[in-house]
Specification:
Structural class: alpha/beta
Number of helices: 16
Shape: globular
Bound molecules: adenosine-5'-triphosphate, magnesium ion
Distance between the termini: 37 Å
CATH class of the largest domain: Alpha Beta
Number of domains: 2
Radius of gyration: 22 Å
């Protein structure tokens, strides 16, 4: 079974959309899929799938030893896709014990399926990081905005740090050093991983070797969502460069997806976009990602070589150009058909102006934070 955890640093960038639609696309390709809503405390996949309110889910399972995992697996209503709901209310779920997490991951990975897709919450708490690291091929979703790309990078930085902290024996000097860094969130943000690793090697060579081994098998993939323009796709290169330079990991590009207004209609109709409009640019983007996953090497230990990884970025840039052309062509057809009134056009421009001014404000805020950070002697 391949486990595909879907994470992001920033919320609202499309994890649940990717998780649910990817599950359906892989199911349509004849693969047995289990989709689990692990956004504990804020689960909403059932809404994306168009299912009624859920009464029993992961929370009930964890909190009740009499319930088997099998009792909470339900049919999603889509070919070959089974669904494990989160829960409407999950008390204390934010603080899962390590043993509970390990047992849950073990039970999930012993289920009978070709793919297990985990929809995770936003952020970098240890639950999310541990579920993400239950596979070496986790998927990170980002939007092209500065905050989203920065948070995608910071998520991966936290993931690398988490791997590191599991490689050193508990209570050893190296472990204590890392724990202190972790407790003081600011130091962790500031820390430069290659330097930290040098230090770790000096303190604990055996732990360092284990880390080296684990990090060479860590092959996360990236999806850029909510593109407006082919240029937005280039932000993927920035995330890749930072990860290579500062974290020592290389990301594979799994593909791009444009912002598509049809998604709002699909959501209101309580249908996943790949079912509501399989021919839409957004659905085609999701099917393309599913195809890449289907044709990916079977041996998850075998890394792509540098040329292959480079090619995934070239392919994604081309996809961004092609999808953009299709979108423009669709728009032109719509304009010439007379179906789009002047009122609609004015409304669209107003929305875009509003979005632009929001982004400008965000930009100013971030600039001032960067200046402050530089003045405080901050390094990456
Ligand atoms: N490509 C897209 N085009 C249009 N709308 C989109 C696209 N991707 C996501 N959305 C919309 O953006 C919103 C957030 O998406 P989604 O819930 O999948 O994000 P998320 O990362 O799971 O959020 P959270 O962090 O809250 O779990 C939803 O309303 C979704 O329909
Ligand atoms: Mg979500």
């Amino acid at each position: 079974m391949q486990i595909l955890p879907i994470a992001s640093g920033k919320g609202g960038v499309g994890k649940s959309l990717v998780a649910s639609n990817l599950a359906i696309a892989l199911g349509q390709a004849g693969k047995k899929v289990i989709l689990a809503d692990l956004d504990l405390g804020a689960s909403n996949i059932h809404l994306v799938l168009g299912m009624p309110t859920i009464t029993k889910g992961i929370g009930t399972f964890i909190g009740n030893p009499d319930i088997e995992l099998g009792d909470i697996i339900i049919d999603s209503g889509y070919d070959n896709v089974k669904f494990i709901p989160g829960d409407a209310e999950i008390p204390g779920m934010a603080n899962l014990k390590s043993s509970q997490k390990r047992s849950l991951i073990r039970k999930l990975s012993s289920l009978d399926a070709d793919y297990l897709i985990l929809d995770l919450g936003a952020g970098t708490n240890n639950n999310i990081l541990d579920f993400f690291l239950s596979s070496s091929q986790g998927i990170i979703v980002s939007a092209p905005t500065l905050t989203a790309t920065l948070n995608a990078y910071l998520f991966l930085k936290n993931a690398v740090f988490r791997i590191m902290s599991t490689c050193f024996r508990k209570e050893s000097d190296a472990w204590k050093y890392l724990e202190n860094l972790r407790k003081d969130g600011k130091s962790l943000q500031r820390v430069y991983i290659p330097k930290l690793l040098e230090r770790m090697r000096d303190i604990d060579a055996a732990g360092y070797d284990e880390f080296e081994l684990r990090i060479t098998h860590f092959h996360p993939g990236l999806i850029m969502n909510l593109l407006e323009d082919p240029k937005d796709g280039h932000k993927a290169q920035k995330i890749r460069r930072s990860c290579k330079e500062y974290l020592g990991i290389d990301l594979e590009h799994l593909g791009i997806m444009y912002r598509d207004h049809l998604q709002d209609v699909a959501l209101n109709s309580r249908l996943p976009i790949v079912v509501y409009k399989p021919q839409s640019v957004l659905s085609q983007g999701i099917f393309r990602i599913a195809d890449k996953i289907l044709t990916k090497y079977d041996d998850e230990e075998a890394p792509l070589d540098l040329q292959d990884l480079d090619d995934t970025y070239t392919a994604a840039d081309m996809e961004a150009e092609i999808d953009f052309d299709v979108k423009i062509h669709e728009l032109e057809t719509l304009l010439h058909s007379g179906a789009l009134s002047h009122g609609d056009l004015i409304e669209t421009i107003k929305i875009q102006q509003f979005e632009l001014s929001r982004l400008k404000k965000e930009n100013v805020l971030l600039k001032s934070r960067i200046v402050k950070a530089i003045n405080a002697g901050y390094t990456v």
